[in-house]
Structures are given as structure tokens and as C-alpha cells.
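[Meeting: bench + compute handoff]

Bench side (C.D.) handed over the final construct sequence. Compute side (W.E.) agreed to return the predicted structure before the next meeting so the bench team could plan truncations. Sequence as handed over:
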Amino acid sequence: MDRKFLKDLLETPSVSGHEEGIQKKALAFGKSFAEAQLTDPSGNAVSVVNPQAEHKVLLCGHIDEIGFVITHIDSEGRLHVTNAGGVRPALYLGSPVQICHGEQIINGVVAVSSGLLGKEKVETSDLIVDIGAVSREEAEQVVSVGDPICADAQVKELLNDCFSCRALDNRTGAFVVLEAARRAAELGASAGIYAATTVGEETTKRGAYYASSRIKPTCALAVDVTWASDAPGTDPFSTGEVKLGSGPVLCMGSAVNKKMNSLLKKTAEETGISVQWEIATARTGTDGDAVNLTCEGVPMALVSIPLRYMHSSVEVGSWKDLQDCIELIAQFLLRLSKELEQGFSFCPID
């Protein structure tokens, strides 16, 4: 597992709708194992193992992050914004941010006041970004309406092999998709493996739709993060008990293919990887929902990474969970390859 590569991804801004720079890094990493690479008008980057194979397995890990976009620059050079994805505005008050203007990074701070701190509910419209400018003209020399903004947080190592940064949702999932494809290639998996770092999940889910509609996979595995129930104030009774450092999370839900889940469970048992379970009785809230409804219907399963403080300006994850997710998916791809060669059926009533 290339921790340095993940840290590079985490420190690369990628607000939903503005993923071009980070996708170039994903493609560069994929060249180390892929026999082919694909891009599309949506902005997806796909690294392919065994492109000649009859059966295609799509791996989706979205690479975009939540953030903001500049909507207006006022006469005093202050920036007004709208949200890109499910941000929690109150968490950004008084926090440093980065504005991406082309390839340049401009530093800023979200303004804070006693009035805002006392407000019952802070809205995105309440947020004003201060870049130190004193006029609209001065601000417009370095930023523009439409520029994306994200939290300014770097990777920090914590106790018990944990780490923190912004955008672990879902930079970690995109990382796992690439590393799992590389590992599966090393193990000799024969199925076509399409490792897609998808765009737009936080806003439109268009990336997953583009990828699946064009690749037409036999089946798909979505890799995303899920709420860790061991964070303060969380409720393990709603969707299940999930702990950081306790392994990959599999999902029991109406959208998830039961045969794929069974194969994931057997793979985990045979490889000694501990797994956890979550429940999703309706939509999973991941790329898997979009993939599931493409083509003539695509069988889908979900592997999630435990995450504390999701959709905050700083999140916490576990290196161990990432390694276990990579190994589980790679071993699953090896086993699925053999099952597909023997006529594996995804139908739960066969």
C-alpha cells in the first residue's frame, strides 16, 4: 500500500466538478499496472487490467470532495459562496480554506463573528471568505467567480495507526480501487478489472453513470466510506455497529446483490480478514446506486471504509482498514474470476 500516494491525493484539491488535476495523478499511478486506460467526457479516469477479458468487473471509487464555489465578489473583496455537495457550514467558521484559481492556490479564511457563533443554524449563504483583499478589483486579480474552495487541512498521523485530513470521503475509496486492481493483477485475476476513479458523486453521480454505461460491466463493486459508530454522539442502532480499525464494511441492502455479498463474505473468511456489516434498506448513497440502474441493470455490491466525522472539514480514518479493504477486494476479484469462468450466476433465486 503506497501511503505516500494517498497523502498526495489527499492534499490535492478536488471539489466536485473540478477533478481534472487529481485525475491526472490517478492515471499516472495506474500506469504502473494497467494494460489500458480510459477517460470520458464526464472526467472519469479508468485503469484497466485484462482489457481483452470477456467478463468485466467495474470498481468505482469517487475522487471528488465536498466544498464550495465562489458566486460573488463584493466591493470589499470578500468572497461569497454556494455549496458543492453536503457541507456543514458551521464547521467552516474561522477555518482556513484554499481557493483553486486555475493551477494556483490562493489562501483564505472563513470569516467568523459572535453573531454567527450564536446563530441556531449557520447556512452556506452566511459564509464569507476573506483573502486579505480590500476591493473587488484587487480580489479579481487572483480569484474568479466559479472558482472552487475547499478546507485547508493536511494529513496528520494519529495514535493506533489512524490519520486525519479533509476529503477522506472519498479519496480513500479511490485509492483502494486503484491499489486493489494492482494487487489483483499481481495475484493473477483473469477477469477484466476496470478501476474507475469517478467524478461528481457528491453532487450528481454522473461519473458512475458514465463509467458503467460505457464499459457495460458484468458486475460492479462500489468502494466508499461509511459512518463509524464509535465516534462521539453516533447511534449504532440505526444502521449497524461500525468501528474504526475493525475492517471493511459490507452492506446488506435491497440494492446490493446477495450472491456477490456471499462471495465477499466467503473470501473474507478464507483470507482471515475481519468484516463489519451495515444495513441500507433503500439507496446506499454511493456510486453503486447509479451503476445499479445502467445498461440492463448491473449487479452491484458495496465495500465501505469506516470513517469518523464524515462531511466535516477534517475526517479520521485507519490505515489498517484501508489495507484490509485492498486485500479483501483483490482476493474477491481473484475468486470471482474463477467463478465467472465456471458460469457464476448473480441471480439470487437460482
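W.E. noted at the follow-up: The first strand starts at residue 36 and ends at 39. C.D. will use this when planning the next construct.
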